[in-house]
Design a protein that fits this description.
The chain is rod-shaped and about 145 Å long. With 385 residues, the protein is of the alpha+beta class. It folds into two domains: 221 residues, Up-down Bundle (Rhopdopsin 7-helix transmembrane proteins), CATH 1.20.1070; 101 residues, 2-Layer Sandwich (Beta-Lactamase), CATH 3.30.450.20. It has ten helices and five strands; from the N terminus they run αααααααββααβββα. It has a five-stranded antiparallel beta sheet.
Length: 385
């Protein structure tokens, strides 16, 4: 008992349409890679071709024979081109167009010049076997590590279909009695049962291949983030060690609060531990007359993200003593937040020396004036000093 070929074609049309819709949904709603859209289009073209084949004898032969056979080759070419693009290989579009032209010329000749269904079957089967053989090679060459199983599985379905098509060519060539596409025999039945199975299987594999690439990229991205985080942590540790050993006082403030101080800063401000300074406002150490000027500069720095020029200022320490420093603030990211790092160079001793030198200079000038006045008075009295 043979299965009705026309009914089988309509079942194949329905199954291929469902496969196309499933892939279309993924293509429209999920991340896909180059080639997936062509695989999806290939299933759509297959569905249209099987529908036209199933309507043979009901619609004009140009649609059910000529267009249907061309669409079948077109669908296979889309699968091949999609595989090449998915593998990121060079497109063979011109080759695909040549196959379509060969199919069109051949089917037109063997329908309207020499109406020969056996030659149409042989030509169609041969071109499909060649295309599916190329798809098999495209899937198996240079297999990506970690995903070999899926590639082998997908390639095996195309290889099985290609191998059957070669058997069909031989069987058709040896059977001169083929007159009707819907003739109930084992070869015709298997010809349309096999695509029903392989289309489902390789559509499933297309979806898996796409998902595996997403998973692979996600894994690489996660590894990249992990490496970046480790590198950042190492860099932060190096900078922390640098700040800890730097002889210059350094502090970082975020949102107007001190969040980090190095040991030199603790010593400079006469604190016994960093906790005495963490959480304080930098403005707490400024002279009241400087607060507006400094806050204005900080706002400009945050807007332009450029460091301010060094500024000489007086600061009040925790023991209420005052120091003179050269302050160099600069914008940074600290623990992921916009912050300001400020380096302080203590010039208190130098300023003290400058003041002492200025006092000595003024004293010498005063003494020089007194000596000059005394000499003038003596000269006025006729005394030669």
């Amino acid at each position: 008992m043979h299965i009705d070929i026309r009914s089988l074609l309509f079942i194949l049309t329905l199954a291929t349409t469902i496969e196309w819709l499933a892939m279309l949904f993924v293509w429209l709603s999920r991340k896909t890679y180059p080639g997936f859209g062509l695989w999806t289009a290939g299933n759509a073209v297959f569905a249209a071709a099987f529908l036209l084949l199933g309507l043979r004898g009901i619609i004009p032969d140009f649609l059910s024979i000529i267009l249907a056979d061309i669409l079948i080759i077109g669908a296979a070419v889309l699968h091949y081109e999609g595989t090449l693009r998915f593998r990121q290989w060079t497109s063979q579009r011109d080759f695909g167009i040549a196959l379509l032209v060969i199919m069109a010329v051949t089917v037109l000749y063997f329908r309207y010049v020499d109406d020969n269904i056996r030659m149409r079957i042989i030509t169609l089967s041969l071109l499909l076997a060649v295309i599916y053989g190329l798809v098999t090679l495209a899937l198996l060459l240079e297999l990506p590590s970690g995903r070999r199983t899926t590639y082998w599985l997908t390639a095996s379905f195309f290889a099985i279909h290609s191998g059957f098509l070669l058997v069909r060519i031989v069987a058709t060539a040896l059977n001169p009695d083929i007159r009707d596409l819907f003739a109930p025999n084992w070869l015709q039945t298997l010809t349309f049962l096999l695509p029903l199975l392989t289309n489902i299987l390789w559509t499933f594999c297309f979806l898996i291949l796409n998902s595996e690439r997403i998973e692979m990229e996600l894994t690489v991205e996660i590894e990249g983030h992990r490496t970046a985080e480790e590198t950042l942590a190492k860099s932060e540790e190096k900078y922390r060690l640098l700040m800890e050993t730097l002889p210059l006082a350094v502090f970082v403030d975020t949102n107007g609060r001190i969040v980090y101080v190095n040991p030199a800063f603790v010593t400079l401000f006469k604190a016994s531990a960093p906790d005495e300074l963490i959480g304080a406002r930098p403005s707490d150490f400024f002279h009241p007359d400087l607060i507006d000027k400094i806050e204005r500069g900080r706002r400009i720095m945050q807007e332009t993200m450029r460091p301010l020029p060094p500024l000489e200022i007086n600061l009040r320490c925790l023991d209420e003593s005052f120091i003179t420093v050269v302050s160099t603030p600069m914008p940074i990211l600290f623990q992921g937040q916009p912050s300001i790092l400020t380096v302080l160079y203590d010039i208190t001793a130098r300023k003290r020396d400058e003041i002492e030198l200025e006092k000595a200079r003024k004293l010498l000038q005063f003494q020089a004036r007194e000596i000059e006045e005394l000499r003038a008075n003596l000269a006025g009295q006729g005394i030669d000093p």
